[in-house]
Amino acid sequence: MLAYLVRRLLYALPILIGVNLITFALFFVVNTPDDMARMQLGVKRVTPEAIARWKSERGYDKPLFINQSAAGSAMLTDTIFFAKSARMFAGDFGRAEDGRDIAREIASRMGPSLAIALPTFLLGLLVTISLALLLTFFRASYLDFWGVVLCVAMMSISGLFYIIGGQYLVSKIWKLVPISGYGGGLDAWKFLILPVAIGVVSGIGSSTRWYRTIFLEEVSRDYVRTARAKGLSEVTVLFRHVLRNALIPILTGVVVVIPLLFMGSLLTESFFGIPGLGSYTIDAINAQDFAVVRAMVFIGSVLYIVGLILTDLSYTFVDPRIRFN
Fold first, then answer.
1. Helix or strand holding residue 242 (H, E)
2. Given this model, what pLDDT does residue 77 score?
3. Region 144-149: what's the mean pLDDT?
4. Is 95 helix (H, G, I), strand (E, B) or coil?
5. How far is it, in rounded angstroms, from Cα 66 to Cα 30?
6. Which helix or strand (DSSP H or E) is residue 281 part of?
7. What burial class does residue 124 get, using C-beta atoms within 10 Å of its C-beta: 0-12 exposed, 13-18 middle, 19+ buried?
8. 1 secondary structure, DSSP code
9. What is the pTM of this model?
10. Environment class of residue 178 by beta-carbon count within 10 Å: exposed (0-12), middle (13-18) or buried (19+)?
11. Mean predicted confidence (pLDDT) in 310-316
12. Do residues 39 and 123 both lie within one domain?
């Protein structure tokens, strides 16, 4: 197991380097520092002196990859690539265009993102798996048919509809919870309950259909017929055998959600005014703060790779036949 983990971590390093290089090329080759200066200065006619001053203040006046005027290791370290991209491997994300430390901002905003994403993830998993098992139990019945129709209808509706509709109905009409904002401590629940509920409801359609398909595939297998032949009830077969054997494809689908637990929901946090990482990314895009966007892309890549490794390791717990060498 340890050898497998080390091997996967070594495989992940070239992937992260590749993502870093592609991100760097998009931000500094396609979009040069001069272009960034013109966008940040926000005026139609920018003097070359103003551009040079802006680049010098933010360290964009250095060569991209190799500094020919430097000696020794400074030829590689005294470059834009090392200062803005390579240092992210050590957790040094630099500063945003407004001067604030990006790592400190990420640490302070991770709590609100987790406060929304973690309950949404756990409740959504519980609700959708339960509904999928219910539809599987009543498969080929009217309940199953209309349940699938409802799931297709729900997954066809944009997530913005759930957010705006939920804010209008629950906050503006019923006035049960604040329409937006965030508060710390025990008062945070009234700001989180609506975003969490909307997140769960908006994911019911697609997730329930996905899990229902997995369960129906397992129901037709030989071990299920053997379990029924032994006299086990349908409920016991579904919860003790079908659900357990369907955990591997479920875990595979869950891995794509793991980065969102830390990165936050872009739309939900923006519409509800939650000071999390999702709204932080949206604000950085609107402000054309490329330092923050680069850092968020890199963190997302790291979290996705970590999620893949954790998913592979979790296979050994749900299926003893799987062993990694």
1. none
2. 85
3. 96
4. strand
5. 18
6. helix 277-286
7. buried
8. -
9. 0.84
10. middle
11. 79
12. no
Tally of residues, the chain: 325
Residue where one domain finishes, among candidates 48, 63, 90 = 90
Q: Is residue 282 part of a domain?
A: yes
Q: Are residues 78 and 110 located together in one domain of the fold?
A: no
Residue with tokens 């997995």: 214
| Number of other residues whose CB lies within 10 A of the CB of residue 41 | 15
Given this model, what pLDDT does residue 120 score? 92
pLDDT at 322 (0 to 100): 67
Q: How many Cα atoms occupy the beta-carbon half-sphere of 106 within 13 Å? A: 22
On whether residue 301 sits in a domain, the answer given is: yes
Q: In this predicted model, what pLDDT tens digit does every residue of 60-113 receive, in sequence order?
A: 888 888 888 878 888 888 888 888 888 888 888 888 877 889 999 999 999 899
Query: Which residues are within 8 A (CB) of 150 and not within 5 positions of it... i.e. 6 or more apart?
Result: 205
Domain of residue 48 covers: 2-90
Residue that finishes a domain, picked among 90, 123, 150: 90
pLDDT, tens only, 37-67: 888 777 667 788 888 888 888 888 888 888 8
> Do 177 and 133 share a domain, yes or no?
yes
Per-residue pLDDT reduced to its tens digit, 7-42: 888 888 888 888 888 888 887 777 778 888 888 777
Between vectors from CA 169 to CA 166 and to CA 174, what angle results, nearest 5°? Answer: 130
Q: What are phi and psi of 101, to 5 degrees?
A: -70, 125
Looking at residue 183, its pLDDT comes to 82
**CATH number, domain containing residue 174:** 1.10.3720.10
